[in-house]
Each structure stands twice: as C-alpha cells, then as structure tokens.
C-alpha cells in the first residue's frame, strides 16, 4: 500500500515549534567587540602589541576576542571591555559611548538583558609618541 508522505505543516501563526536557544560568551564578546570598535575615539581593544583593528578582525575570525570578556547566563549578560583610546577624546565620555554602544548591540543582536558593561581605558594612543621612547626618558 503506497501512501504519499504528508507534507510538513508550517507552525501556526504566533506559535513556534519547541526548542531552545543559547548564546555563548564568545558570541556576546564578538558582538561587543564590533560595537566598541566602531565608537569614535577607540584606537584598539586590549593592550600590548597586537592592538590594531586588523588584528581584531583576524582574532574575531578565529574565536579569540582581545580586550573583551563576557559572562552569559540564561537571560542576562555582562561585558568587560579593555581599550586603548585615541588622544584628545575625554576618557569618561568615551567610556560612556562605548558602554552605550555595547549595551545596545548586545541586547539587540542576542536578546539578552545586559546588566553591566565595564570599560577599562588601559592606554591612550598619542600619534607620533612611541612606547619605546617615553617622554620621561627623552633629554
């Protein structure tokens, strides 16, 4: 007795099939990194030598997110950002703008409630000033 398969029925409007969704700390950190990097006055994320945005793109593509850490629960997330600022931008204003950008991006893209975004300004990039020759050591 041959029977044709019953076609799959789409879920009724307003009714979704059962299942669960989880968002990893890595996913949250990547969303936060992109949002923070887009803020005017952020020179780079993280500290140390590999602070260029090209290094950020490379790291994000491979799963590491320099300068960004995220903690994720079932419905909430917290994000820590360490950055290098461009000289000339008030640091507290920059931190506020980064905090707002990260908060909005993470909530919008992940659906998680962001309970805190901590921003640490670890360094200031001054064009023409090399880390190897601090001003205190110059004659």
TrEMBL record:
Q: Which domain of life is it from?
A: Bacteria
Mention any Pfam family matching this sequence: Asp23
* Residues that span the membrane, as ranges: none
Locate the region Disordered.
1-21
**Top-down, what is the taxonomic lineage of the species of origin?**
Bacteria, Bacillati, Actinomycetota, Actinomycetes, Micrococcales
Task: Specify the protein name.
Answer: Asp23/Gls24 family envelope stress response protein
Which InterPro entries does the protein's record reference?
Asp23 (IPR005531)
> What family does the database annotate?
Belongs to the asp23 family.
Report the PANTHER family cross-referenced here. Answer: ALKALINE SHOCK PROTEIN 23, HYPOTHETICAL CYTOSOLIC PROTEIN-RELATED
């Amino acid at each position: 007795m041959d029977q044709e398969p019953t076609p799959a029925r789409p879920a009724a409007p307003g009714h979704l099939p059962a299942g669960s969704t989880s968002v990893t700390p890595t996913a949250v950190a990547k969303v936060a990194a992109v949002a923070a990097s887009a803020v005017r006055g952020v020179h780079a994320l993280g500290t140390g030598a590999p602070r260029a945005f090209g290094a950020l793109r490379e790291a994000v593509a491979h799963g590491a997110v320099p300068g960004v850490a995220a903690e994720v629960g079932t419905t909430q997330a917290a994000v820590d950002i360490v950055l290098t600022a461009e000289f000339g931008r008030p640091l507290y204003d920059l931190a506020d703008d980064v905090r707002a950008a990260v908060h909005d991006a993470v909530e919008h893209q992940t659906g998680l409630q962001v309970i805190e975004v901590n921003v640490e300004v670890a360094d200031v990039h001054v064009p023409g000033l090399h880390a190897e020759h601090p001003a205190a050591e110059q004659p």
